[in-house]
Design brief:
The complex is a heterodimer. Chain A is α+β, with helices and mostly antiparallel strands. Chain A contains two helices and six strands. A five-stranded mixed β-sheet of chain A has the order 2-1-5-3-4, with helices on one face. By secondary structure, chain B is of the alpha/beta class. The mean pLDDT of chain B is 96. Classes of the chains: A alpha+beta, B alpha/beta. Chains A and B meet through strand 3, strand 5 and strand 6 of A and strand 4, helix 2, strand 5 and helix 3 of B. Strand 6 of chain A pairs antiparallel with strand 4 of chain B.
């Protein structure tokens, strides 16, 4: 599947805006991604290994938080995963 | 100091958006290209403010809208360079909430003060630092066409 990398994190993927990974689930895709690009890990996950609260994941156009199986959702090679940090303020 | 470069038309468009949504906050994304000392903005994309509960002093862009904006940026060969929002009847300075909720390291956060419905000062702040834990806002120079503005 294709993982789309947001602008701030391209620094850690050699400038690539998209990375192809071979994975069966969303969690597997994130694992493959961070194995290939270890510097990404601390930007996506807390020290406890949980996805940072401000990191949104979209499988195609669906918010992964609202998928029944969440990050355990199975994926196919034609799916896309977008990593989108949140945007808000006062 | 980094520089945010944009055309007068884009600069006016961002400020006009804040006037249109007054007394609520406007928000949107800036698409552009990275240069050696900052972003060259090529387009501004309006977004909806989902904080209808407190739109006069809060903004939020729906992530799904950002997914679509980023897809369009990629199609145009551009990147998300930053974001803009307005401060109705409040200075064009970042607030504690702006800082806490800023997560796009290396991006520009443009704030326009709108006083009684009229856009006044526009400032830009680069979210600098190598990680969420080290992030900080640094004021940028705004260069509109060939004119330097936004420097206090």
């Amino acid at each position: 599947m294709t993982v789309f990398i947001p602008t701030p994190l391209r620094l850690y993927t050699g400038g690539q805006d998209a990375v192809e990974v071979d994975a069966a689930t969303i969690a597997g895709a994130l694992e493959s991604l961070t194995l290939a690009y270890p510097d990404l890990r601390k930007h996506l996950f807390t020290a406890e290994g949980k996805l940072r609260a401000f990191v949104n994941l979209y499988l195609n156009d669906e918010d992964v938080r609202y998928l029944p199986a969440k990050e355990a959702t199975t994926v196919s090679s034609s799916d896309t995963l977008s990593i989108i940090p949140s945007i808000a303020g006062g | 100091m980094s520089v945010l470069r944009l055309t007068g038309a884009l600069y006016d468009e961002i400020r006009a958006h804040g006037e249109e949504t007054y007394p609520h906050e406007c928000c949107g994304a800036l698409l552009g290209k990275s240069t050696t000392d900052g972003w060259q903005i090529e387009a501004a994309v309006r977004a909806g403010n989902t904080r209808t509960d407190s739109a006069h002093n809060r903004y939020n862009i729906a992530p799904v809208e950002l997914v679509k904006i980023e897809r369009e940026a990629r199609r145009q060969g551009l990147g998300i360079a930053g974001f803009y929002h307005s401060h109705p009847d409040h200075p064009a300075q970042w607030s504690a909430t702006d800082f806490a909720e800023a997560h796009w390291l290396g991006s520009s956060y443009v704030i326009t003060s709108v006083a009684e419905g009229k856009a006044t000062v526009t400032n830009s702040f680069l979210l600098a630092g190598a990680s969420e834990e080290e992030k900080r806002f640094e004021q940028e120079t705004i260069q509109v066409d060939d004119e330097i503005i936004g420097r206090n």
